[in-house]
Amino acid sequence: MSARDLFSVSGKVALVTGGSRGIGLMIARGLVEAGAKVYLAARKESECAAAAASLAALGACSALPADLATQAGTRALADAFAARESSLHVLVNNAGANWGAPLAEYPESGWDKVMALNVKAVFDLTRFLLPQLQKTATPGDPARVINVGSIDGLQVPVLETYAYSASKAAVHHLTRVLARKLAPSVTVNAIAPGPFESKMMAETLRRFGDSIKAGCPLGRIGEPDDMAGVAIYLASRAGAYVTGAVIPVDGGISTTK
User: Fold this and answer.
1) Residues 6+ apart with CB under 8 A from 211
2) Could you give all domains of the chain from N- to C-terminal order, each with its CATH number?
3) Of 97, 153, 185, 231, which residue is the least packed, with the fewest Cβ within 10 Å?
4) Contact (Cβ atoms closer than 8 angstroms) between residue 86 and residue 141
């Protein structure tokens, strides 16, 4: 197999949640440009449609607006996808939320919101779409689930984002559990991003951007191609024998703590 074929995702069908901005949009753009047919899911219908339209200029991309904060919303997305496609090669569970507050003031509502979207929705959407994933699987090319965790799930974060860091550690371990359960027809891996330009990271980068760069072995903030590259690797034949892995994409920051 040539290197071009080894990393090809041409013709694959992918669903990316939280795909209208940030890391989700970086992954979706990479998959579209590499030849995959991508469905974007995001809570705000106008933003989801606008992002899908911008990517449709580069390849095959459609919007599937959905609110994954509840199980009913997650089920609705799975049903909407199944109404359009009978099979799914790549599921990217990226939708997420954050909440920061001092320990003594941390609200139950914030904890519940973060856990529901960051952990429960990942579990629910994966199992709801399992029939479509399993339909695409072959012995040498299983279906793929790519969960987006965080280096905050690998190390103690700087900010008081208790539910977020706990939820991402949960995503990492859920990834390992599902990898064991769904093999050999589906691989399940997680990406643990470090600092990337996104709405969720904007305040952190505003306050600590210079020190983050200074403490990063590679000396910079992550760029869209860095995120797209690891997603394409996991989605392609090149990553077909990798499952249960949590891959830091952080310029080496997690090696310094």
Assistant:
1) none
2) 3-255 (3.40.50.720)
3) 185
4) no
Catalytic residue ranges = 164
DSSP string across 95-163: --------GGG--HHHHHHHHIIIIIHHHHHHHHTHHHHHHH-BTTB-EEEEEE--GGGTS--SS--HH
Angle, CA 164 vertex, CA 254 and CA 78 arms, to 5° = 110
Two tokens, residue 2: 């040539």
Q: How far is CA 37 from CA 104, 136, 167, 205, in A?
A: 46, 14, 29, 33
The answer to whether 92 and 24 have CB atoms below 8 angstroms apart is: yes
Torsions phi, psi of 19, nearest 5? -90, 5
